[in-house]
Write a structure and sequence with these properties.
10 strands; 4-stranded antiparallel sheet; HSP40/DNAj peptide-binding domain; 6-stranded mixed sheet; 18% helix; elongated; Alpha-Beta Plaits
Length: 145
């Protein structure tokens, strides 16, 4: 079993042993065990509060192995609006509900929730369920690189 204790920023030129596809929830776990497609067990022992981002690198405890983290596609709702103001209003209402939310200039993305979907559609937004990588905001006090 390989143990990973260090998070490194994305580096497209890094030579990695393999890639580990993780959901948004898995990328927020600092203590966890994963199994690779080849059956190898990996253990994360990262500082509490660590949130992994797409393309981050993990270094093994002994320094012998680098792994690239990728955002695993997962079931999400993608929300689009006819106007920027309508999209902004939707972000406001979702924020009041403390929903994990990916924010872009053309869409919002969140985990599927039938109650929130009905609210958004009632507001006049288009909601589509799809499978896509999910990159929720880390929060105002979260760190990023």
């Amino acid at each position: 079993m390989l143990t990973f204790t260090k998070q490194l920023p994305a580096n497209p030129d890094a030579v990695v042993s393999f890639t580990l596809a993780l959901t948004a929830a898995d990328r927020a776990r600092s203590r966890h065990r994963f199994e690779t497609d080849s059956g190898e067990t990996l253990q994360l022992l990262l500082p509490r509060g660590t949130v992994l981002r797409d393309r981050d690198l993990l270094q093994s405890e002994d320094g012998s192995c680098l792994v690239r983290v990728t955002a695993k596609p997962e079931l999400v709702m993608t929300v689009r609006a006819a106007t920027p103001l309508l999209l902004l209003r939707a972000a406001y209402h979702l924020g009041n509900r403390h929903v994990y939310l990916e924010v872009s200039d053309s869409y919002l993305r969140l985990a599927p929730d039938s109650v929130l979907q009905a609210m958004l559609e009632k507001m006049g937004l288009a909601v589509t369920e799809e499978t896509a990588p999910f990159h929720p905001e880390m929060g105002a006090y979260g760190h990023s690189h």
